[in-house]
Amino acid sequence: MPMRSQRWSTQFALAAAVLIAGAAPSGSAGAQVLAARGVGVAAAAGAVYLSAASDHAPDPLGHAVLSVVVSMSFVGAAVVALRRPPFVRFGILLAAVGFSSLLGSLHDANGAVVYTIGVLTANLVFAVLVHALLAFPHGLLRTRPNRLMVAVAYVDVLAIQALSVVFDPLTRWKSDHPRNVALIDSHPSLATALAEVEAAVAIVLALSVAWVLYRRTRLKSPVARRQLMPVFLGGKIALLAFAVGLVAAPLSSQAAVVGIVDRVDINETLSDSSIPSNGQ
What's the predicted TM-score (pTM) here? Predict the structure, then answer.
């Protein structure tokens, strides 16, 4: 890896540590907070290294910056939630959103196996975000429709995605990327059709979750609505941005991340205001 890449990859890894640094907590929640911090720093450092060392990433520096900002904004919010007993479960989900967002960095890997894992899991963050928003604020899915939507989200981004990948030679991605080791038989048109089905399901889910969140805010008191509005509004826009990325994914590797830039500020707003001060 060139010396310049080594230098900025180290700087971004350190920046990730600073983003979630703080005084060491005590008590039972302390271990969870320290674990979130440690895993967050390690995962961000690994993601930055993959981007820095990549032989085929179109913009390794930009991807590394986005990976750290998006992931650590959620992990930082998770650290806050883990300190407050009513929101520990939600904090774990926020951390999961942050960590799963780093799976996209596996696309930059030079090894075929790691690269393929990245292709298979790149959209998992969408389902985890759906799960977190529907479980807000206490981390529990209290209704059958919510549980059904979360289950559909995971099936969409894991099962349908995997089915698409096993028929996808990834020839539309104009870069010198590693081969797809999960390829069973090359059927680009079938793979594209499955990717479009995945995107359509994601769009329907994003709109459905937005409707659920809208109805939930209407049932709250005016004070609670003002408190919950930033996280709900940010969550709705973030979900739609992820869905747009899924729609664009069949077009090209660069189009597949079209939603990332739009998500950065949204995710910061979402994570900064995700924990109610009074537990409502």
Answer: 0.76
